[in-house]
Amino acid sequence: MQSRVYIVGTAHVSQKSVEEVRKVIREVQPKAVAVELDEKRFRALMGEKQEINVVDVVKRGDISTFLLTVFLSFLQKKLGEEKGLTPGTEMLAAIEEAKNVGADVLLIDRDLGITMRRFLDSLSFFEKIKLFFHFVKGMFEDVDVDELIEKDLTEILVEEFRRVSPNAAKVLVDERDAFMAYNLIRAAERYEKIVAVVGAGHKKGIERYLSKPEEIPSIPELLKVKKKRFSLAKAIGFAVTALFLLIFVTIALTLGLSEAREIFVIWFLINGVLSALFTLLAGGHVFSAFVAFLVAWLTSLNPLIAAGWFAGLAEAYIRKPTADDLYELTKAESLKQLMRNKAFRVIFVAAMANVGSMIGTFLGLWIIWEKYGVNVKEVIQALILSGLNPFLISKSLTF
């Protein structure tokens, strides 16, 4: 069957795009209308409540993925409201017109959860840190809509991510271009005429893959999510743990148990206070802050667990977020509304408790080094020469 595919590139917050989508579908009278959506986003757009367990998000450690998704949705909504539009209006228009002309609706985009996880996996440790601060900054900044409205939001993100991390741009755009092109090629085997409604930033890439389908990567590879692996962040965490324990043991053997107890108190208080403080700054309950205070000293010594997990679970126990909270999250129009949302509060508390604990870890090490005159280079050399024997280490160190 010979099939024709008409690609409409849209700006996600543009009334002009909505009108163009309607016009093209009416003129072409396609047998199918393909939209840049996956199943979950389609259901959310149609007003269905999403069944997401916030507690499971915290337990799985998917805090970054959740916050990133919320942030992108919030930014797009903010852009749309400046122009009196609801994000996704052009997709709703495409779905409505498809029904009017009797066309099937095809969901051709990759699952957003897979895209976000692959995106975060593509970032280095330092790029993730930079992304977090961009996230916090973006929540408080006004968006220059006049400058951005002519571009697709994806294009804006791509320009930034191609500069910061080419791999991130590859995941957000190039891979999705290939995935959507693959689905259009498959659809073309069944439908004579197809109108595809996608973001303007995807149009050229999809057209390129349609003209050269042999360049489309393996689809199973595009759907693969890496399992938790030994990352640089974990390596740094284990290094910090080893360094602290080494200093603690050598000071105990050299200066006595009273000094070692003092070090433990310093470590406990600095980690606990900062983790609790950041929990409160995130709008967390006092009980959640208390939990963060109690566990931060231990979680900072174990890269496999995080203070945010415990603070987030405590917050979930107190707030008891429901499916309605997740639904309302998609309607938030301001930072204040986000902060009032129970589901967002739980995840944000978990993230900020982790930030406080991380700062406390490095600040605690610095204070201990300064207070006891610890020469880190000397400690590491002693560690290597002693073969991890604390008694030999203590003999080779001076405080």
UniProtKB/TrEMBL annotation:
<protein>
    <submittedName>
        <fullName>TraB family protein</fullName>
    </submittedName>
</protein>
<keyword id="KW-0472">Membrane</keyword>
<dbReference type="Pfam" id="PF01963">
    <property type="entry name" value="TraB_PrgY_gumN"/>
</dbReference>
<feature type="transmembrane region" description="Helical">
    <location>
        <begin position="346"/>
        <end position="369"/>
    </location>
</feature>
<keyword id="KW-1133">Transmembrane helix</keyword>
<feature type="transmembrane region" description="Helical">
    <location>
        <begin position="264"/>
        <end position="283"/>
    </location>
</feature>
<dbReference type="InterPro" id="IPR005230">
    <property type="entry name" value="TraB_bac"/>
</dbReference>
<dbReference type="InterPro" id="IPR002816">
    <property type="entry name" value="TraB/PrgY/GumN_fam"/>
</dbReference>
<feature type="transmembrane region" description="Helical">
    <location>
        <begin position="235"/>
        <end position="257"/>
    </location>
</feature>
<keyword id="KW-0812">Transmembrane</keyword>
<dbReference type="InterPro" id="IPR046345">
    <property type="entry name" value="TraB_PrgY-like"/>
</dbReference>
<feature type="transmembrane region" description="Helical">
    <location>
        <begin position="289"/>
        <end position="311"/>
    </location>
</feature>
